[in-house]
């Protein structure tokens, strides 16, 4: 939930003028208008961070289609009929600053062999954390 929604959901202390109280009552409405539920949004953020750690960051233009595919798991009555709007991915990035785009520079061909050890170590650390997740089970 973004900062504004959290503030609106907290309510107002006594003694605050009524026009301000009317604005504070919209917190539940803002939450109900979110495209993804909080746990679906957390799953999308976790996926984006994992892909980035594995060296394959997801482009901003594909994030709405990922969110739309996550909603396919809902019952048919709760599914949205359209993917989120064009500004939804940027709003997701604002709500979760850890997903901010990282700039990836091309590596000079003369140097690519010298930097592989640390990249391989990092990849095994990331994949090791993924494999330790109890949700991933060995299928025989």
TrEMBL record:
This is HTH CENPB-type domain-containing protein. Residues 72-103 are annotated as: Disordered. Keywords: DNA-binding. Residues 28-102 form the HTH CENPB-type domain. The keyword Cytoplasm does not apply. The lineage of its organism: Eukaryota, Fungi, Dikarya, Ascomycota, Pezizomycotina. Residues 92-103 have a biased composition (Basic and acidic residues). It comes from the Eukaryota. One of its GO terms (molecular function) is DNA binding.
